[in-house]
Amino acid sequence: MPGAGLCSCWGRRVLPLLLAYVCYLLLGATVFQLLERRAEAQSRDRFQIEKLRFLENYTCLDQWALEQFVQVIMEAWVKGVNPKGNSTNPSNWDFGSSFFFAGTVVTTIGYGNLAPSTEAGQIFCVFYALVGIPLNVVFLNHLGTGLRAHLATLKRWENKPRRSQILQLLGLALFLTLGTLVILIFPPMIFSHVEGWSFGEGFYFAFITLSTIGFGDYVVGTDPSKHYIAIYRSLAAIWILLGLSWLALILSLGPLLLHRCSQLWLISRGLNFKEGGAPGTDGLPRPQKIPISA
Known about the structure:
Blueprint: H1 2-57, H2 63-78, H3 95-106, H4 119-149, H5 162-195, H6 199-210, H7 232-269
Helix pairs in contact: 3-7, 4-7, 5-6, 5-7
């Protein structure tokens, strides 16, 4: 019966995956609680102590006035205004910053440190995201397809001598390595230098950004004490688009590259493939063709 088949499919596939998913969430919740709860409590206690010291030093203020001032600071922060510095701080809505914000909307990163505060801006953001998010997905898919098209010679690896296969494999590995350095290693170094972060913080920002998690604890171009070039945040937005495209290419070519490495290793060992490939001109088994989209 269809109902019995559906229950069987649920029991064999969905239920184990659901249990693994829930267990993974429970594991993450436990580890984050152990690592972060004490630091949060220390920060909260330190903040309360600083408020008490402030009231002791400025006796003309009372608790209510201080809480009102803190509320004003929080509202300014929510609207993207950095409370540090003065009114000469650069605008969060100049063209470069607006371009950066538009990029975080269509890529669904959403740092959370900046958002439209006007009703018209919020309505426009909704419709802009409704069109921009699918457009971004289509663009990244086509860009990844275009990059893979330049590597279409991988389809003809099986028809070449083993030495040529090894050379092409090394060239592809070098290409992916250099691209990873340009996209994932050098930008964190630049961000660390410009923002005054450590390399670990810069790499953390890069990973959180390109994975579209976007916590908002680290965001480029927001320190009022620094003087950024006008196109700094626009360049960061372009890097985000290129980084997402590169990750899409890595995820598609990574399994193929690993598969070809294993095949060449088996050939070098003189073993027969279980697929039953036909022997090549050198007397060694020839693997079956694998499409580039595998």
